[in-house]
Design goal:
The chain is an all-alpha fold and 165 residues long. The chain contains five helices and no strands. The chain has a single domain, classed as Up-down Bundle (Ferritin). It starts with a helix and ends with a helix. Bound molecules: hydroxy diiron-OXO moiety (OFO). Keywords: Cytoplasm, Iron, Iron storage, Metal-binding, Oxidoreductase.
């Protein structure tokens, strides 16, 4: 049986994962609109992964006898200055998620909720992977510094990365 404070925080995280899914889907729409089809495919796939993160939390909350509660999901930003802007925002967003997951793990540990602490370990390693992934894209974008040819190759590279994560 989960404690009330834990259910509340897990539900907040669940809703945040929904927001992440919407954010990446919206980013993919911007990319596609600007002709970055590789980036669009990469972000669409990532949006699906975020829905997976949401469902994993939903199931855990439900399996433990508590009620998953879906709240209002804030609209994500729809306009971006550049491809680098998109990935900078995505990287910052992942850093925020890592912070939230760490706070959840802190709460689980301090309240001796070892089941939830164990459940959260999957998210801890997932966050490490996601931060590394988005940082690697940002590094490539920094190398080509917004030049047409360079962006074309980064976009192609993103297409190749899709389906591998
Ligand atoms: Fe991108 O890891 Fe969930 O939110």
């Amino acid at each position: 049986m989960l404690k009330e404070a834990m259910v509340k925080q897990l539900n907040e995280q669940l809703n945040l994962e929904f927001y992440s899914a919407n954010l990446y889907l919206q980013m993919s729409a911007w990319c596609s609109n600007k002709g970055f089809e590789g980036a669009a495919a990469f972000l669409t796939e990532h949006s699906r992964e975020e829905m997976g993160h949401m469902h994993r939390l939903f199931k855990y909350v439900s399996d433990t006898g508590a009620l998953p509660v879906l709240g209002t999901i804030e609209a994500p930003r729809a306009d971006f200055a550049s491809l680098a802007d998109v990935f900078t925002l995505a990287y910052e967003h992942e850093q925020l998620i890592t912070k939230q997951i760490n706070e959840l793990a802190d709460l689980a540990m301090s309240t001796k909720d070892y089941s939830t602490f164990n459940f959260l370990q999957w998210y801890v390693s997932e966050q490490h992977e996601e931060e590394t992934l988005f940082k690697s894209v940002l590094d490539k974008l920094a190398l080509v510094s917004n030049t047409g040819n360079g962006l074309f190759f980064v976009d192609k590279d993103l297409k190749n990365m899709t389906g591998q994560t």
